[in-house]
Design goal:
This protein is mostly helical and 164 residues long. It folds into two domains: 16-26 and 33-46 and 126-164, no CATH class; 64-125, no CATH class. Helices cover 54% and strands 4% of the residues. It has helices at residues 2-28, 34-47, 56-60, 67-76, 81-88, 121-125, 138-144, 149-161, and strands at residues 89-91, 97-99. A two-stranded antiparallel sheet has the order 1-2. Helix 2 (34-47) crosses helix 8. The two termini are 30 Å apart. It binds iron/sulfur cluster (2 copies). One iron/sulfur cluster is lined by residues 58, 62-63, 104, 106-107, 113, 115, 119-120, 123. It comes from Aquimarina algicola. This is YkgJ family cysteine cluster protein. InterPro entries: Puta_zinc/iron-chelating_dom (IPR005358).
Amino acid sequence: MQELINQLPTLAKDKYKENKKYFAKLKKKPPKKLDQMMQELHDEEFAATDCLSCANCCKTTGPLFTDKDVERIAKFFKMKPRQFEEQYLRTDEEGDLILKKTPCTFLGADNYCSIYEVRPKACREYPHTDRKKFQQISNLTIKNVAICPAAFNIVEKMKAKLPL
Ligand code: SF4
Ligand code: SF4
């Protein structure tokens, strides 16, 4: 797995133009069966993926924290939301709340998430490959294929299954 993770930025760079073109076409005319196809590809890929031997998302990129995420996680730590924010989060250039640092503070050396039950919504949904109207998050997906080996494979399988 680590070898693939190391190669991923180069592999994704090689596919960048092709993916850009593909998603531009997909956006223009998304097929009716897209949601169902993505769900199947996502389920199939994650059934064969061991995220605990990867954790590259938690190591290299952090989630956005919604107000609900902050409330829930602060409660878990028996902290005030404000206190939690001050200790762990910062506001980025776009005004979103993000982690002060990566790898994520809540990631253990064993790749387990210490706040798994209450983790941010963005973590639960990452890499968003089973999202409805998948064509709407093409820019994010193009970024994610350089981080997440499962997302990379899903996009490659998607292009093979649905040539445009
Ligand atoms: S979601 Fe992707 S990047 Fe994150 S641990 Fe799983 S395979 Fe790795
Ligand atoms: S909160 Fe948990 S799942 Fe989310 S980035 Fe941190 S370690 Fe990963």
